Amino acid sequence: MKKILSLTLAFFMVGISGFFALAYSQQEVEKNEPQETIISPAQTFSTLPPRAYYNPGGRRDPFKDLIGKGKTGGKVTSATGQLTIDNANLVGIVKTPKSFVAIISGPQEFPYFLKIGDRLADGYVYSIDESQVVFRKTHERGFPLMRPRNIVKEINPEER
User: Fold this and answer.
1) DSSP secondary-structure letter at 56?
2) Domain 89-159 top-level CATH class
3) Is 142 left (phi over 0), alpha (psi -120 to 50) or beta?
4) H helices of 36-149, where?
5) For residue 75, how many other CB atoms are within 10 A of its CB?
6) Is 136:122 a contact under the CB 8 Å cutoff?
7) Phi first, then psi: what are they for 56, rounded to 5°?
8) pLDDT in tens, 118-154
9) I need a labelling partner for 106 at 20 to 30 A (CA). Which of 11, 49, 52, 60 fits?
10) Helix, strand or coil, per DSSP, at residue 119
């Protein structure tokens, strides 16, 4: 009887130790699973490396795109010589079958052929007729204007 009792007690102890071992291993698996952490934006930015800084010191910026964004489709942008309304000189107006085209001379004396809606650095072409071009100025020194202004450039009567 002592043998049966000792065997039963031994099986009971092995079963209990197996149960505790199984429970302990499940706790370790739960501990090893990745937990969701919440990171604030300040913590995110504090872990980033510092941004690169370049002081040109009067030299050309080596990071500036020299080629530009490709073909602009006839639009004059700030990358094409900073043509503004103030430094644009009206050379002539050509009548096409559909509309008028203004011939403008820029600060480097390059000719520009502008149609209605073409953009300049500080505005756009509002209208063109036989003797004048109306520009709508929307920016002044890089800042948008509260009320856009119309600037009229006319051809001299002796040049017509």
Assistant:
1) -
2) mainly beta
3) left
4) 41-47
5) 14
6) no
7) -65, -30
8) 999 899 999 999 999 999 999 988 888 899 999 999 9
9) 60
10) strand
Residue 37 to residue 105: CA distance in whole angstroms: 61
Nearest CA among 75, 88, 104, 94 for reference residue 137: 88
Q: DSSP string of 58-69?
A: TSPPTTS-SS-S
Give pTM, 2 decimals: 0.49
Locate the domains of the chain by residue range. 1-35, 89-159
* Tokens, residue 90: 């009206």
Residues 6+ apart with CB under 8 A from 99: 115, 116, 128
H or E element in which residue 15 lies: helix 2-32
Which residue is associated with the tokens 């872990």?
47
Amino acid at position 46, single letter: S
Joined together, the tokens standing for residue 107 give 């600060």
